[in-house]
Amino acid sequence: MSRRVAILVSGGGSNMVALVKSMTGDHPARPVLVLANSADAGGLVRARELGVEADHVDHRPFKGDRPAFEDALHARLLQAEPDILCLAGFMRVLTEGFVSRWQGRMLNIHPSLLPKYRGLHTHARALEAGETEHGCTVHEVTPELDEGPILGQARVPVLPGDTPDLLAARVLEQEHRLYPAVLRRFAAGDRSRIDLAA
Ligand code: GAR
């Protein structure tokens, strides 16, 4: 039976596009909703172009009342009856209340080799630390930020002359390989870890 996938985005949604495009043929899942926290998230337009229902729940009217925002997000998600939630550049921190409702069914992609560089500015921090290797991680979401069982990682070399932007672009290419590969396995009930090298 095909698993129903909802994808949460805040920005341009290039990972969302990679996920949606991967769910064809004999894939064990299909996209049922792309949901953003703002009407102007570029990912919404791209999702509709790909024929996927897209909607937003604006976080701003909730003015710091995170649980109320999450209740609205949850209610909208439920309408699509997803089995799996993929965070794809979703830049709102989720509370334990929301996470516990989806735990075991929610994935996130993070632009570092976790447990290194949780949080923001991961590429600049990796460069500052003199890393020779960097990458991205797909993990199950648990209440602690960027924690949770790791389902896959992809590594890239850090090259001489790299800037945060150059490194981000090299990592993003790998994100587009890794996230679909992990989702395909996860949707089929396989939580074994994937490791990709550039
Ligand atoms: C991606 O690099 C993703 O790993 C990162 O945001 C970018 C979204 O790009 N996510 C985080 O930093 C989460 N903390 P996209 O909108 O083009 O997929």
UniProtKB/TrEMBL annotation:
<protein>
    <recommendedName>
        <fullName>Phosphoribosylglycinamide formyltransferase</fullName>
        <ecNumber>2.1.2.2</ecNumber>
    </recommendedName>
</protein>
<feature type="binding site">
    <location>
        <begin position="13"/>
        <end position="15"/>
    </location>
    <ligand>
        <name>N(1)-(5-phospho-beta-D-ribosyl)glycinamide</name>
    </ligand>
</feature>
<feature type="active site" description="Proton donor">
    <location>
        <position position="110"/>
    </location>
</feature>
<dbReference type="GO" id="GO:0004644">
    <property type="term" value="F:phosphoribosylglycinamide formyltransferase activity"/>
</dbReference>
<comment type="pathway">
    <text>Purine metabolism; IMP biosynthesis via de novo pathway; N(2)-formyl-N(1)-(5-phospho-D-ribosyl)glycinamide from N(1)-(5-phospho-D-ribosyl)glycinamide (10-formyl THF route): step 1/1.</text>
</comment>
<keyword id="KW-0808">Transferase</keyword>
<feature type="binding site">
    <location>
        <position position="108"/>
    </location>
    <ligand>
        <name>(6R)-10-formyltetrahydrofolate</name>
    </ligand>
</feature>
<keyword id="KW-0658">Purine biosynthesis</keyword>
<dbReference type="InterPro" id="IPR036477">
    <property type="entry name" value="Formyl_transf_N_sf"/>
</dbReference>
<dbReference type="Pfam" id="PF00551">
    <property type="entry name" value="Formyl_trans_N"/>
</dbReference>
<comment type="function">
    <text>Catalyzes the transfer of a formyl group from 10-formyltetrahydrofolate to 5-phospho-ribosyl-glycinamide (GAR), producing 5-phospho-ribosyl-N-formylglycinamide (FGAR) and tetrahydrofolate.</text>
</comment>
<comment type="similarity">
    <text>Belongs to the GART family.</text>
</comment>
<dbReference type="InterPro" id="IPR004607">
    <property type="entry name" value="GART"/>
</dbReference>
<dbReference type="InterPro" id="IPR002376">
    <property type="entry name" value="Formyl_transf_N"/>
</dbReference>
<feature type="binding site">
    <location>
        <position position="66"/>
    </location>
    <ligand>
        <name>(6R)-10-formyltetrahydrofolate</name>
    </ligand>
</feature>
<feature type="domain" description="Formyl transferase N-terminal">
    <location>
        <begin position="4"/>
        <end position="183"/>
    </location>
</feature>
<feature type="site" description="Raises pKa of active site His">
    <location>
        <position position="146"/>
    </location>
</feature>
